[in-house]
Amino acid sequence: MNAHWKTERVRCRHRRATRFAWWLLSLAVTSIGTAQGPVDDRPPTIPIAREALNDSLERLTGPLEQSASTVSEDVRKALKRATSETAGLPVQHRLDPHVSIVIRLNPEARVRCYPGPAPIALTTTQPTWTLVKIINDCGSRAELRITTRETGEPEPRAIWHWVGNDPSPDAPWPRLSGSEVEYRWLQIACPVPGWREVTVAFDAGAGTQDIGFRGETALLLRITE
Prior knowledge:
This protein is α+β, with helices and mostly antiparallel strands. It is 29% helix and 28% strand. It has 4 helices and 9 strands.
């Protein structure tokens, strides 16, 4: 009986140790996922009226007719289908798979950003337009500014600016529309081929970046000739 009791006690301790090890592993995985950002990189869809997206669709479709920038045929088709939708959610369902960066302003106007599902493909021969989705929970109409830095470079080689905005350094930044959801083209140009690690940050004024550096995101870009 004594030997049997000792054996059962060892087995019980082993089971407790195994459960504890699995708990530690699950906690570590959860912590890593939280630190890296959202596991699902698809932009959230917001229930809004189709009319609230009219300005965004006009802002996206208008410049394409006279632009020599790189926009894939898949994105052009998705945009054409989005303009034919009569409700807000289907418009977002059409465009969101092609979003490269998601920006969200919380009710306190704190800005966070993270990569979207669409990769950014750059070429040295002409600028690339990439799609950005902005979710504005506070209705802000502030300027939306961009800053970038590149690993190993004293000054960024790639030039980023909002399409339709004057790219000169002294020009004012474009203002948010105040709509709960809007889409914008972000133009990126880089004359140097190769791989570049870029940290891009967005803010809507001094002190508006979200805590924990969530107002910036790291991107690995490949620039082809």
